[in-house]
């Protein structure tokens, strides 16, 4: 059905375009050929789609992108052909108007020339008034019915030809002037349009300028307010800096006082530890002194006992006495050495190790 309709439309277009010029027929033939090519491509694609049931979206997209440049080229050609047809149509319309205007002017000039010629004939002829009236009526009727004129004399023909030439020259000059006037009018119209556009642009720019001026004024007020706020903030920042300096000094003083307090507490604790250690040292010293005194007493007692034994045992042998004396000397040396060594060890002890840790305090 589509091919039959396309054939019918093509035949109708050919019949209607048989009266058109050759250039139009050539463009129409090219367009028909391109439309046929597109129709054939569409039919083949449809046949392929009907034969292959497993058609994917990618294949359709590929076929679309293959057809797209042809369609774009066809649309571009249609647009260019439409522009050329519009230009030629406007040119033919202007030429037809000029031809009609020129034809009307020529017909009016010919009627004026015929009227002048009839007036000259009326002046030259020496007919009676009745004959003149009849001749004038007959001349008017002949001019209205476009009947052939009677032969004119040579000087009248020359005058008429000169007048016709002058009229034609005047018409040509008038056409040239009209063309120039039309060009000037076009330029004037274009200039007026440009002026109107420029006026509208100026109005828009003026409105934008006023808006920008108002915005500038508003921003100026805003900047002044911000400057005042900045001054206030600067003064506040200076005040805060001063306060911060004072607070820093107070913090330093508090830290120093805290450190002094901590050190004083540590000193007091250390003094208490020293006092306690001194007490313990005195106690240990007293205990040692007591032990020394007891040891001395025991030694004295042992010496006294030995002396008593010596007094009683005079009859012992000398060798035994020597052995006893040597044993006493050795005993005394050993006990005294032990006591003095123990006392030296007590003195050399680091008694501060036994105190509390100052860092924990």
UniProtKB/TrEMBL annotation:
Domain of life from the UniProt record: Eukaryota
Coiled coil: 267-305
Keywords from the named record: Coiled coil
GO molecular function: actin binding
Domain called NAB: residue spans: 5-96
UniProt family annotation: Belongs to the NET family.
Protein name as annotated: NAB domain-containing protein
Native source species: Vitis rotundifolia (Muscadine grape)
